[in-house]
Structure formats: C-alpha cells, structure tokens
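Subject: Predicted fold for Band 1, 162 residues

User T.R. writes:
Posting the sequence so we have a shared reference for the thread.
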Amino acid sequence: MKVSTAKWGGLQVIAMSERSSATKNTADGGYMDHDSKMSDEHRDTDDSSEKTPSRMSRSPQKSSKRPKTVPVKVTLLDGSAYETGVEKLCKGQMLLDMVCEHLNLLEKDYFGLTFSDTESQKNWLDPSKEIKKQIRVGPWHFSFAVKFYPPDPSQLIEDITR
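User M.O. replies:
I've generated the structure tokens; pasting them so everyone works from the same file.
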C-alpha cells in the first residue's frame, strides 16, 4: 500500500493506492503508470468548479444541426423541369434515385445525370461521389439523360424505359 500526498489549489490531497511495478514517482509526489498518464488519484476531478455555466451546457440550437439542403433543378428528357432539394453532402446516387422515383422508373441502370462545368464541358455525375465535390460553383442544374442504350430494347422490362 502506498500513501502519497499532493497539493492542488491550496488543498492537500492524501491518496492511498496499490501500485504495480510499471509505475514511477513524479516530482510532485504523484506517480505515472506505464502509459505515462497521471494516475486517477492525482487528477483534478473537480473540473466543474472552474467551468462557467455556458461551457457546461450547450444551447439546443447549436447541438441540433440540421443538414443543409441545396435546391436542385433537373431537366428531364421531355424538356420539363423537376425541382427538389438535397442535402449538401449527399452523393449523386441519392439525386438519381429521387429523379427515377419521380418518373416511376425501375430500370435505373440505363440513365444518369449530366451537368456543365465552369468551361461549359458536359460531364456525367458520378453516383458514388458527393455532388458538391463534382459541381463546384453555380446553381445545381442537371439534365436527366440516357447513359446506355441496350442492344435490344425489346428486352427491357418496363415500357417507360423503352
């Protein structure tokens, strides 16, 4: 059994403990374990006295962050526009799924979304990447397009896909 004393803030703390051989004494009368962390007996456990009430409790407005939504406009194959909003950090697949659901499309593999970059170059939206990392500036405007043409369209299950 080891009895040690230490002073913190004018208070004398007496600690009684059994130590393993992997500990060593420190200059202030405490001891360190094999991971070089101060033992629990010598830590200042009354941190709440030094904290201000504002640090102890956070306002509910800051702790309940809602994901930011970005307005999106998608031009469909017939020229009509589909407008929706998606989370800022969502991936391209989520937006493609929303458009396909709006159109009642089950065979999504043949379609994709395109966008124009800053140099007016047309690009396919990568469904596995975040949208914001692909379309850096400007409004989020996309075009729904046929990405793959099957060799025999009669093998498609849905009439709407043909």
